[in-house]
Structure formats: C-alpha cells, structure tokens
Design brief:
Nucleoside Triphosphate Pyrophosphohydrolase, globular, four-stranded mixed sheet, 8 strands
C-alpha cells in the first residue's frame, strides 16, 4: 500500500520495466491489482520525480522481487500524448527471487519458451521477452554534453 508521500512523489506518466533473463529463464511477477491482476508480467514501475529511468528499474526490481539488476539495452518504448513506458534488458547482478507480498503474490523464473506460450503472460510482456532474446535494442552511448544526468541510447 502506497503512503501519501509516495503518491505525491510519483510521476504517474513515466514508467519502466525490465526483462531479466538468466540460464534460459525470465523473471516474472504475478500482479495483484489492476488490469494485470493475476497475470505474469515483467517487473517495473513508475518513476519518482527527479529519478532517471535506469535508477527506477533498479529500485523497482529490488522492491518487487528482491533481485538486484543493472539496466542494459533499451529494448523498447511505448508512448502516447500522455505518457511513456520504457523497457530495458535487466542484467542480473544478485539476489533470490521473492514476492513483495503487496504488488505481486508470486515471483518466478520461468523457462522462456514456456513464458511465450503461457496464457497468463500478456502480449506486451511476450513481445518484450522476444526483443530481449533476439538481442536487439539500443545501448547507453557516451557523448559530449554539459548537462548532468543526460543520457543517450543509440
């Protein structure tokens, strides 16, 4: 359950998720609320004001799954006139997968082929898993800039 402070500090128009693949399995979490209730999805969440997407991915993964990741390639972005949602390859660093007991009630490493066939895995999650498997995406690219915390993916 979110506190009033968390609600106020969250940018509800910007969100991220990540596809973490390890030993032929993808990390999925079964959501407990909203349109994704009961579905196995890639972990992620909304940015806090002043946070960059890569940091949000790390924070959300840790909070929701107990797994520490690093943001890798940018696999895809969905946007409209109101909001955007970016999906990264989430590079596994450490940790044992576990449910947060709030936003999800199950966190599981699922065989990739099984996940792509499972009716409880939504289409967007399947599409992003496929993008991660085919090793596509944009990488963080250093460039000469005077603006701090300004990131380019190419």
């Amino acid at each position: 359950m979110l506190t009033e402070e968390e609600i106020k500090s969250t940018n509800w128009t910007q969100s991220v998720a990540g596809v973490c693949i390890r030993d032929g399995k993808v990390l999925l979490a079964r959501h407990t609320y909203g349109a994704g209730k009961g579905k196995l999805i890639i972990p992620g969440g909304y940015l806090k004001f002043g946070e960059v997407p890569q940091d949000t991915l790390v924070r959300e993964y840790q909070e929701e799954t107990g797994v520490t990741v690093k943001a890798g390639k940018l696999l895809g972005i969905r946007f409209n006139e109101e909001s955007w949602y970016a999906v990264f390859a989430a590079e596994y660093i450490e940790g044992e997968a576990r449910s947060d007991g709030d936003e999800n009630d199950l966190v599981v490493w699922m065989d990739i082929e099984e996940a792509l066939k499972d009716e409880n895995v939504p289409g967007l999650t399947k599409t992003m898993i496929e993008a991660a498997v085919k090793d596509g995406g944009l990488v963080l690219t250093p460039y000469n800039t005077t603006k701090p915390r300004n990131y380019l993916f190419t």
